[in-house]
Amino acid sequence: MKKTRVLASLALAGASVAAVSTSAVASPRAPAATSVTLTGKASGVTLTLMFGSSGPAETAAVKAAAAAWAARSHNHVNVIPASNFTQQLDEAFAGGTPPDVFYLGSQQIETFARQGELLPYAPLVAPAKDFYSALVKAYTINKTWYCVPKDFSNLALEINTTMWKAAGLGAYPTNWAQLQADAKALTKNGVVGLDVGNTLDRLGAFFAENGGSYMNKQDTKFNFNSPQNVGALQFVQSMAKQGILQFPPQQSAGWAGEAFGLGKAAMATEGNWIIGAMKSSYPSIKWVAVPMPAGPSGKKGTLTFTNCWGIPAASKNSRAAVNFVKFLTSTQQQLKFANAFGVLPSRIAAAQAYAKQNPSVAAFVAGTPYAMAPVPTIGFATVQSQFDSQVVNLATGGASPKTMLDQLQTNAEALLHP
């Protein structure tokens, strides 16, 4: 996303201003204390909410939530389900009229935060301990927690139970050795045992399971070509060379969920968004989701993908916007969103309640304590795309895991030291 303006001031003409100090949450991982200045009135104002919708169900749920809050707070909310969210959000910021509340992904947080375009309001909404630590970390830059995580999705292993029973298999895999053996047993009659997306956003789960990571704990150095990551990618390649693991392009599928739904793959690695896809497009497939299998050392790992509720530093009505986000991230409202369009609540209490009510999401929620978020570094999307373009070649031996990760390391480091 191109950013052309830095919105540095909250002293806006005509707005009533109040200073609010926040204290650090009582937790060893709590973000640093911050001071936030809120603008505008708590009621009698009009807010703009912009978001990228996954479909009619999400749009209806967001509009209903906005209407409910507006009625109880005596405000009004203009809800904009953007047709091209990234472009429209960029244009709004560039034009000096950013929405008062908007979706923001963890991969964009650094771009906005470093340019001073985000209000670090999150500690005003709730203590960090109320949310999963991995999600809080995803929206924390230089110890400042900027925005409250809206919801999230984790990767899990999906299994076609009909094919599983036909193959005479027993317990579901909990480690790599079992995963490989099961994938081999399931590969037959034109069906591959496991389909994995040909992107870092799927293969990274294997890095985590092998004790690897994208960056160090301080997020100051990349670890892409670590022995753990190389070993993980070599494991994936070994399965691909055996023909028991394939990537979507090899099966003429747009994503692993499609290959799984069409019966071309007995297992797949996707997030909880697959639940809706299976219900709507492949209702006859009987399947189950289980946590991602652990690596050789027994370490568990998965990837998480999340959005937060962003509030711009330039908002003239940040007081009302913060109150709006409090409502949107309440346990009750998060459960409404989850039931409406399948996202996982970011509040621990809400996520646990949702998983209890909906056993099909339990495997996705289970990975949250150890889930790894995408790289937020500015410009990384281009670097990742170069890596992703080589993944399919792992199956033919035309790509070397060590070479691919060395190149990824070099290109990523250039972002930190241009």
Features of this protein?
alpha/beta, 16 helices, D-Maltodextrin-Binding Protein, domain 2, 418 residues, globular, two-stranded antiparallel ribbon, 38% helix
Structure description:
The chain has 2 domains: 24-153 and 306-357, Periplasmic binding protein-like II (D-Maltodextrin-Binding Protein, domain 2), CATH 3.40.190; 154-304 and 374-416, Periplasmic binding protein-like II (D-Maltodextrin-Binding Protein, domain 2), CATH 3.40.190.10. The chain is 38% helix and 18% strand. It has 16 helices and 15 strands. The protein has helices at 56-73, 85-94, 109-114, 133-138, 161-166, 176-186, 200-209, 227-242, 256-261, 274-281, 318-328, 331-341, 348-357, 362-366, 380-388, 401-416, and strands at 17-21, 35-39, 46-52, 76-82, 101-105, 140-141, 144-145, 148-160, 192-196, 245-246, 265-271, 287-290, 302-310, 344-345, 371-372. Strands 3, 4, 5, 8, 9, 10, 11, 12, 13, 14 and 15 form an 11-stranded mixed beta sheet that branches. It has a two-stranded antiparallel ribbon with strand order 1-2. The chain has a two-stranded antiparallel sheet with strand order 6-7. A hairpin with a 2-residue loop joins strand 6 and strand 7 (144-145). Helix 7 (200-209) crosses helix 8.
